[in-house]
Amino acid sequence: MDNHSSVPWASAASVTCLSLDAKCHSSSSSCSSKSTASSISASPETQTMRHIAHTQRCLSRLTSLVALLLIVLPMMFSPAHSCGPGRGLGRHRARNLYPLVLKQTIPNLSEYTNSASGPLEGVIRRDSPKFKDLVPNYNRDILFRDEEGTGADRLMSKRCKEKLNVLAYSVMNEWPGIRLLVTESWDEDYHHGQESLHYEGRAVTIATSDRDQSKYGMLARLAVEAGFDWVSYVSRRHIYCSVKSDSSISSHVHGCFTPESTALLESGVRKPLGELSIGDRVLSMTANGQGVYSEVILFMDRNLEQMQNFVQLHTDGGAVLTVTPAHLVSVWQPESQKLTFVFADRIEESTFFLLRDGQSGGGGEKQVQQNGIHWYANALYKVKDYVLPQSWRHD
Predict the structure, then answer these.
(1) Which domain, by its residues, includes 109?
(2) Given CB 3.0 to 4.6 Å as the disulfide criterion, which of 90, 115, 308, 384 pairs with 226?
(3) pLDDT tens by residue, the chain, 395 residues
């Protein structure tokens, strides 16, 4: 017994054998069996083993329950249409990436068109009010040449910083041990002619840390995939990239409706969204176009003070719909008799969209600016580019 007492598992095994053997005894040895059982129950080693066995059974049941939930929960959810995500981490990476060729640009348009990086907004100097909108980039995965010694090459617009950080990650994945090199970003010395997005912090010239020119075609492709709005394989020595201004795309990140926009409650009362409360049941729509009342359970991103750009859609019946450019609008296609969803800023004249009173209409579109409310958290915009198809995103 001394040996058994020094080895817990051996002692427990002996007790278990005694317990099983006691069950096989006749009633004439019941007293000795009971005394053995009492000594067994009093053994701390036995209690420990029973506790371990019970814990293992509980863990096994918990694992089975979790596995069951993982199978059942996806069946309980159904897809829903929501506002289009705006700025994010870039575009879906294609399976086969082809490098750009020298002098190629993507898109094949003028850099200053709205479909590319957009028009110039004005030079930003250190004493300009907009200078505070530039942000420094201290990403350790990016090398900055900073030949001026002023840190100017680290300054850029918020959107440019986002895309550059994504590109830096892609470069490390494509060529382990190689880092992204920024040779020029915001420029205050007017080295780029009279018109350049470098003066606004919206453009960068880039290369790889090893200066291997054979990589630059693929580097340009990675920049396109990272989400830069205009990429040019402008020279054998570097790649040029630029982005839209932060002001032109801010409405894609915040806002959905104005605080004055109203929601129809189940009671029949119209309530401004700025006064909407958790628990209110508002009119919404199912996937097949049926109106249902749904409970408001959460405001994940609500800002009643921030100014944003909105689109106003006017119908021939006099109705006005005010939403952000990336908001999805229910559009009716008479030719195919189908209901689709289109981003608000892509709706054209004579388009039919659904209104609550059953009327449909189409009309002009104009931009307005005021405060807005958004239903979704910013975190969703950080992951949307990796989970949504390109056609679903509002860039």
Answers:
(1) 105-249
(2) 90
(3) 444 444 333 333 333 333 333 344 444 444 444 444 444 444 666 666 666 656 666 667 777 777 777 776 666 655 555 555 544 434 444 457 899 999 999 999 899 988 889 899 989 988 888 899 899 999 999 999 877 778 888 999 999 999 999 999 999 999 999 999 999 999 887 777 778 999 999 999 999 999 999 999 999 999 999 999 999 999 999 999 999 998 775 434 555 777 778 888 999 999 988 888 888 999 887 766 678 898 888 776 666 666 666 778 888 888 888 887 777 788 888 888 887 777 777 777 888 877 765 444 444 444 444 444 444 444 554 555 555 555 555 55
Which positions make up the binding site for Ca(2+)?
A: 147-148, 153, 183-184, 187, 189
* 81, part of any domain: no
Interatomic CA distance for residues 143 and 206, integer angstroms: 10
Coil/strand/helix, residue 358: coil
Binding-site residues from annotation: 147-148, 153, 183-184, 187, 189
Rg of the chain in Å (alpha carbons)? 32
Whether this model's pTM surpasses 0.70 = no
Number of domains in the chain: 3
Q: Please, what sign has the CA dihedral across residues 291, 293, 297, 301?
A: positive
Same domain, 226 and 273: no
Residue 388 in any domain: the answer is no
Look-up of token digits 């053994």: 43
213: CB partners within 8 A, 6+ apart: 236, 237
Query: Which token pair is 39?
Result: 């000594």
Domain assignment of residue 89, yes or no: no
266 and 234 in a common domain: no
Distance (Å, whole) CA 58 – CA 237: 64
